[in-house]
């Protein structure tokens, strides 16, 4: 059964130094508040998995939390580069970060395979791409029935997955609406999970085919109001596109970034995401 | 006719016209998204637009800044999970056209969005593959749109993130269950198509006012031109006004956000 914890306690209990952690949310519902709590608790040597690292992993990488990043598209959507990710990869600041990159299709399949308890995912992927030459986790197999050559990647099995959602009921069942990404798969693929929510309600008031994660499939729920900002929560608040643009300037320079991190995360109480 | 337009508008309108009404199109963010939505708002009202965030048959009123903006989900027929999007809808063969942008493209229409330089010591690290590697092979065909420059149009890409026709033009030969690949490349100077034999990109149409020398200057290999070289039709008033309104709406929406 899901346990209601403070965000501080949830992160302290379920994220350890050296953990493999997936903080998912495909542009929507990115768990920034939880990411900031991980930074505040100075977790180190994390292997961070996420299809689109986005600003949240740029911040974690710049703050020195990451040892390795597994991803499939590492940019600031519609704006440009993730400067902290680039600085770590190109110049080793604040320390070198190993990267392992996939395509979206492969990572989505790998999350799904993880949720399904399989060791690997099979897809018709990477044909003609040179990604397999730089990522030894991309292999090819022959279909035993047709002989077709197909790509295989290991499933994603994080120690801990962290996602953000609209709401939980008082029993700890969680509703995710809008662009649902790979959040359900991420939670089911992980050994442990934390879900931050905008609010706790009496009834989820939903329909039979909604994306609902039952309480008994979740470890911890923490309320984090506006916990996805500067990304958005469908039905609650919009994406702060201006912050995404502004991040380009903040993250471009090590000093500006460090200042921002001190002011808005390290010396800030448990709070909403990336507001400036 | 005779209205003023920019090179960028010429590129977007030409790219939009490439999409036929009723086509199912998997849309990349940026220029492809602008062109696909212009098509939907002009000659192709029944074009089906799909974005990798899981939004099926979406009709955004403003252009999304990111691939997962709320506008895409709000205006979609339905929104599915990302694994379903890639497995059922793309890999399952439901997509006619993949519409992609890129940082670098070579003569065999291979795309590089991974890095400039050597993989272990990159000069410039780019975002990576995203949805493109499988869009390019699972969609029926692929349209590519980007601005023409010598930096972008190189003889051989530094890294093949997404295959066009491979290093030798033959990467798709004999491969089962693979799409036709890039069928046209639309830039702000011209339209290119792969040569039916060699698969090397050749110019089939020059935009009005553009010379062969302009294209040669902006291309990093010895670009060839077809014998029956055409002139790309100019944008009409309707296309230009709808495109400008779309961009103005988008600009207003993205700058009027909460702080």
Automatic annotation (TrEMBL), chain A:
Keyword Ribonucleoprotein assigned: no
Any one GO MF annotation of this record: CoA-transferase activity
Keywords recorded for this protein, A-Z: Transferase
One Pfam family of this chain: CoA_trans
Keyword Transferase part of the UniProt annotation: yes
Database matches in SMART domains: CoA_trans (SM00882)
Superkingdom to which the source organism belongs: Bacteria
PANTHER family: ACETATE COA-TRANSFERASE YDIF, CHOLESTEROL RING-CLEAVING HYDROLASE IPDB SUBUNIT
Protein name as annotated: CoA transferase subunit A
């Amino acid at each position: 059964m899901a346990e209601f914890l403070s965000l501080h306690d949830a992160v302290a209990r379920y994220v350890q130094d050296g953990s493999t952690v997936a903080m998912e949310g495909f542009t929507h519902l990115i768990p920034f508040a939880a990411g900031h709590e991980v930074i505040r608790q100075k977790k180190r040597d994390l292997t961070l998995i996420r299809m689109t690292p986005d600003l949240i992993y740029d911040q974690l990488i710049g703050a020195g939390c990451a040892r390795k990043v597994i991803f499939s598209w590492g940019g600031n959507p519609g704006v440009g580069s993730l400067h902290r990710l680039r600085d770590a990869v190109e110049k080793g600041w604040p320390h070198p970060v190993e990267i392992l990159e996939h395509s979206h299709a492969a990572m989505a399949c790998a999350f799904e395979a993880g949720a399904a308890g399989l060791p690997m995912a099979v897809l018709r992927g990477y044909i003609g791409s040179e990604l397999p030459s730089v990522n030894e986790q991309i292999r090819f197999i022959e279909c035993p029935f047709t002989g077709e050559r197909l790509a295989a990647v290991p499933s994603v099995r994080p120690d801990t997955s962290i996602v953000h959602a609209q709401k939980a009921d008082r029993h700890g069942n969680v509703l995710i609406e809008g662009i649902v990404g790979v959040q359900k798969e991420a939670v089911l693929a992980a050994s442990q999970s934390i879900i931050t929510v905008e609010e706790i309600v009496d009834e989820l008031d939903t329909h039979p085919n909604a994306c609902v994660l039952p309480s008994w499939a979740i470890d911890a729920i923490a309320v984090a109001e506006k916990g996805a900002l500067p990304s958005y929560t469908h039905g609650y608040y919009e994406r702060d596109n201006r912050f995404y643009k502004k991040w380009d300037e903040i993250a471009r320079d090590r000093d500006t970034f460090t200042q921002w991190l001190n002011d808005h995360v390290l010396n800030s109480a448990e709070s909403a995401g990336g507001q400036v | 006719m005779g209205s003023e337009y920019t090179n960028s508008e010429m590129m977007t309108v030409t790219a939009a016209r490439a999409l036929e009404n009723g086509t199912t199109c998997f849309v990349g963010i940026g220029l492809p998204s602008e062109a696909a939505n212009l098509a939907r708002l002009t000659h192709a009202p029944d074009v089906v637009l799909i974005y990798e965030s899981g939004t099926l048959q979406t009709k955004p009123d403003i252009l999304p800044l990111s691939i997962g903006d709320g506008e895409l989900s709000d205006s979609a027929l339905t929104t599915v999970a990302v694994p379903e999007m890639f497995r059922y809808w793309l890999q399952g063969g439901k997509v006619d056209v993949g519409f992609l942008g890129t940082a670098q493209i070579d003569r065999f229409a291979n795309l590089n969005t991974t890095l400039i330089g050597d993989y272990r010591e990159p000069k410039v690290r780019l975002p990576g593959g995203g949805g493109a590697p499988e869009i390019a092979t699972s969609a029926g065909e692929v349209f590519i749109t980007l601005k023409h420059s010598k930096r972008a149009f190189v003889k051989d890409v530094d890294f093949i993130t997404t295959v066009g026709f491979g290093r030798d033009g033959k990467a798709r030969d004999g491969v089962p269950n693979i799409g036709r690949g890039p069928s046209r490349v639309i830039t702000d100077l011209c339209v290119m198509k792969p040569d039916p034999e060699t698969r090397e990109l050749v110019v089939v149409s020059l935009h009005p006012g553009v010379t062969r020398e302009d294209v040669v200057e902006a291309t990093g290999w010895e670009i060839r031109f077809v014998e029956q070289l055409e002139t790309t039709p100019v944008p009409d008033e309707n296309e230009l006004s709808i495109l400008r309104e779309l961009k103005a709406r988008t600009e207003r929406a993205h700058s009027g956000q909460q702080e």
